[in-house]
Write a structure and sequence with these properties.
Elements: H1 3-10, H2 54-58, E1 79-82, E2 85-88, E3 95-98, E4 101-104, E5 123-125, E6 156-160, E7 163-165, E8 168-177, E9 183-185, E10 191-196, E11 200-201, E12 204-208, E13 223-225, E14 230-238, E15 249-254, E16 262-265, E17 281-291, E18 304-310, E19 313-315, E20 319-328, E21 334-335, E22 341-348, E23 351-352, E24 359-360, H3 363-366, E25 369-370, E26 375-383, E27 391-399, E28 411-419
Parallel strand pairs: 5-26, 12-17, 19-28
Antiparallel strand pairs: 1-2, 3-4, 3-18, 6-8, 7-8, 8-14, 9-13, 10-11, 10-15, 14-17, 15-16, 18-20, 20-26, 21-25, 22-23, 22-24, 22-27, 27-28
Amino acid sequence: MNLDEIERILRRRAPDEPRYSPRPLPRPDTRGGIEPGVLRRATTSSRRRVGWPGLVAAGAVAVGALLLVGSALHLRPDLTIGGAGLASSGGVGSTVAGSGGSTAAAPGTWGTASPGVSIGPAQVVPWTDATPTPEPPSPTPIPVPSGTPACAADQVDGSAIWQGATGNMVGPLTVTNVGTVPCRLEGPPALVQILSSGQGILPIDYVAHGSSDAGLTAPAGPVLLRPGDRAAAFLAWSEWCGAPVSGHLELLVTLSGAAGHVTAPVAYALVPRCDTPGLRSTLAGFAFVAVPPQPAPAPEPVTASTTLLLPPTAVIGQTLHFQVRLTNTGGHAASLDPCPAYGEHLVVGGAALKVESSYLLNCAAIGQQIDPGQTVVLDMAYDVPAGLAPGPAQLVWDLEPGGPFDALSGLARAPITLVAP
């Protein structure tokens, strides 16, 4: 992976973030320093182009897993903290670097704080080898009690949305139990018709599939729909060679084992491409699956000032001990529940070494939150891989997206020289 690829990854933004104007990624100079510049990373987008089964699960679902590794380490003995400053007790110089570049730290100083932020004495937090818990698997389907009746047409509301996929329209038909008692959905819809407000029911052949999506062959089990619960069935519409469709679209859905139909408005009046003129249009419907409840929205992230405090050299094959100075520069407290994760990256010769793990901040030592203007100094450790060539490198430290801090400002880098043992 080269620096340009790293930059593209780090600049991906969430839908609610302002557009970032790219700037060239700084590259190491011949002395091992870094050209002035700003390395930014936007949070990973929570809205992604998804097909089935992501559309069925919630309309748009993103998942990730974090690996587990680490060992307990301590702060380098020749670096001590006094008040709000850094004191070099052994005559070894240290580097203070943040997102805006790097400078040599004068004894007893931290560097420049963000304007308008009053920073008190920093709290020093020991390093911990705690790692994030992998994301739990998909929830286990809830058993359907014996005797649960099939969902009636007047017991559920419906809606649908689809998007283009290789000329077809694919997406979920979602139904919600708006009644007062649980009911059961089993298999695919018995019949789905497409109604155009301008042309009536469109001439389409409906094909029901017992599996939950086109990539599975095993029949799907029944779905328990308690009051307020939702379920979704994947739909795939292909080959519309008829007259242009006008007006809005609705689906007339007949549920298995129920009389009448459910009316499900379609969000966008999109039709599939005609690839084979004269071929009859087909709508495929797949089995219903439960839709997990929507999680509560995360609080708005706050901005941070992030600075690395590094020794000038790191020994190849040994553990580098350093510190990160993290300040809440936002207008409200940053909650540490759940505890934020961070990553450490070493860039050598213009390419980042493979990241093998992420770690959690030592939230037990920090407390429940970091208040506005509060600074914590985090002891850190990084195992420098063996087999590297001596010379200049960059250390990058970054908070993982999705935490309480804005990932644009939760990133810092600094130059460091690799030396032989």
